[in-house]
């Protein structure tokens, strides 16, 4: 998810995100384009997953 810098405005809690992601077998990373928080980690995860599929 993006906009992790706006935690006070979240409509769904991070705990709810964790539960749904686990149920669906998804990986999630909360990011913020404004602060750059976890943006590199998100792109690295995507790149590693892409390489795994090759």
Automatic annotation (TrEMBL):
Classification via InterPro entries: P-loop_NTPase, Small_GTPase
GO molecular function ontology, one term from the record: GTPase activity
Gene source species: marine sediment metagenome
Pfam families from the UniProt entry: Ras
Protein name: Uncharacterized protein
Coiled coil: none
């Amino acid at each position: 998810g993006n906009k992790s810098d706006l935690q006070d405005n979240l409509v769904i809690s991070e705990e709810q995100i964790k539960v749904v992601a686990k149920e669906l077998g998804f990986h999630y990373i909360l990011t913020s384009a404004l602060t750059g928080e976890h943006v590199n980690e998100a792109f690295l995860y995507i790149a590693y997953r892409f390489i795994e599929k090759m």
